[in-house]
Design brief:
- The chain has helices at 2-10, 18-24, 44-50, 55-60, 62-75, 89-93, 118-121, 128-131, 133-146, 159-168, 176-184, 186-210, 227-233, 235-251, 270-274, 289-298, 317-331, 350-369, and strands at 81-82, 98-101, 105-108, 152-157, 214-219, 259-263, 280-282, 303-308, 336-340.
- With 370 residues, it is α/β, with parallel strands linked by helices.
- It has a single domain (2-369), classed as TIM Barrel.
- The strands form two sheets. The chain has a seven-stranded parallel sheet, with helices on both faces. The chain has a two-stranded antiparallel sheet with strand order 2-3.
- It is globular and about 60 Å long.
- The protein binds coproporphyrinogen III.
- Residues 36-41, 50, 55, 82, 84-88, 100, 105-106, 155, 171, 218, 220, 264, 343 line the site of coproporphyrinogen III.
């Protein structure tokens, strides 16, 4: 633990802490912005690295991982970097084989079908600190390479999203195989979600020890859950993670970092999310202006993040600018982090990405001055 603190002291000092101030509700001179999946296939320099390396080799090689994490920051005036990794490194760490198939996405070699499969599929003795050391090494390297330019975000998938991948074995429209567990293997589902929760807490805390200055938890599969299923099988574990990360950081005497929850398509649970002790609630692009205004009134101290439709980047710069202005007016410049309402698409227009970032900065600077 003393070596961890030493490392933290040795990191270059931060020149741009806008996003950290926005998380704490402190005044900012302009609205901070980062973009979900900002490192990725819309960048030719990323594709060039991917043509030489498999997806998970990029994740597992700290020097390459650091390079692709920094790529979007060379092009755009972003206020945060996010470490290049994937939510599926967790099931891999537990012993499951996951491959990234071109033009298809992730695929598990041996998904879990019934509870009896869990014993052979996952090894409960595995430690995040050992299995995912490559993530932490990449974070430390990247934190140094950033040279204090902006904070570095660490992340993890949330328990329900990971459990549903482990059962479905690949992307799914309905997640009906995974949802079947929630109706037929209730106890076994809770047991798996609880196990994943402990592992995820460790994974997030290790990322902070390695140098992550902000954490985002991705609960990407809320769209297939009813409010009732969400409250029973997702929310309790999200809450445990927020509390567990805070408690473990305190025990290890590591300064607290802000926590972001991005629960995609959880439009039915915004109240629960805003009262779950996360510092920031990420909103997807389906959340309406009226819902945002209501959240602002009810939860003035919660920082909101989002929520431009990734497809808005296909619009003309003139139309894009109008949508950005509207977004900034609805959220207001305080307690706000601008972002897309989901990850950027591979065919996004790079000039429009730059226009998005610069326009958020320019308009919000004006709003704050006047
Ligand atoms: O945001 C960043 O720049 C950091 C890196 C990051 C990736 N995946 C890189 C990636 C992050 C934060 C993720 C999170 C992730 N991964 C989520 C949660 C966010 C969400 O989209 O809801 C999920 C569900 C995954 C699982 C995953 N990984 C899928 C479904 C896919 C395939 C879909 C696609 O876009 O192709 C991936 C692959 C992936 N993860 C890529 C990248 C850059 C593209 C793979 C490639 O280079 O071939």
């Amino acid at each position: 633990d003393s070596t961890v603190k030493q490392n933290q002291d040795e990191f270059p000092s931060l020149k741009n802490n806008l996003i950290l101030r926005a998380c704490r509700g402190e005044p900012v001179e302009r609205v901070p912005i980062w973009i979900m999946r900002q490192a990725g296939r819309y960048l030719p320099e990323y594709l060039s690295i991917r043509s030489q390396n498999s997806f998970f080799d990029v994740c597992r090689t700290p020097s390459i991982c650091c390079e692709v994490t920094l790529q979007p920051l060379r092009r755009f005036d972003l206020d945060a970097a996010i470490i290049f990794s994937d939510i599926l490194v967790v099931p891999q760490a537990l012993g499951m084989q996951v491959d990234m198939i071109a033009k298809e996405g992730p695929r598990f070699a041996h998904p879990i079908n019934v509870p009896a499969d869990i014993k052979t599929a996952i090894d409960r003795t595995k430690q995040a600190s050992v299995e995912l050391k490559y993530v932490y090494d990449a974070i430390t390297l990247t934190r140094h390479a950033l040279d204090g330019r902006c904070p570095l975000i660490g992340f993890s998938g949330a328990p329900w999203t990971l459990m549903s991948y482990m059962i479905e074995g690949k992307g799914s429209e309905t997640h009906s195989k995974a949802k079947k567990w929630l109706y037929t293997y209730v106890e076994e589902s809770h047991d798996l979600l609880q196990f994943l929760t402990h592992f995820i807490i460790n994974h997030l805390v290790e990322q902070v020890c390695a140098g992550a200055q902000l954490l985002q938890l991705f609960e990407s599969h809320c769209g297939c859950l009813s409010h009732d299923l969400f409250v029973r099988f997702s929310l309790p574990y999200l809450r445990q993670i927020a509390k567990g990360v805070r408690d473990m950081l305190t025990r290890r005497q590591i300064p607290f970092v802000p926590l972001i929850i991005f629960a995609k398509d959880a439009h039915y649970a915004l109240d629960e999310l805003c009262s779950s002790s996360f510092d920031v609630v990420g909103l997807d692009w389906s959340i309406t202006r009226r819902q945002i205004r209501t959240l602002r009134e009810k939860y003035p101290s919660v920082t909101l993040q989002g929520n431009l439709d990734p497809c808005a980047l296909y619009a003309s710069q003139n139309d894009l600018e109008k949508m950005i202005k509207q977004m900034l007016e609805i959220f207001g410049p305080k307690n706000y982090i601008a972002n897309l309402g989901h990850g950027i698409y591979p065919d996004a227009n790079i000039d429009n990405v730059k226009h998005f970032v610069d326009t958020v900065h320019r308009i919000s600077k004006d709003m704050i001055k006047h």
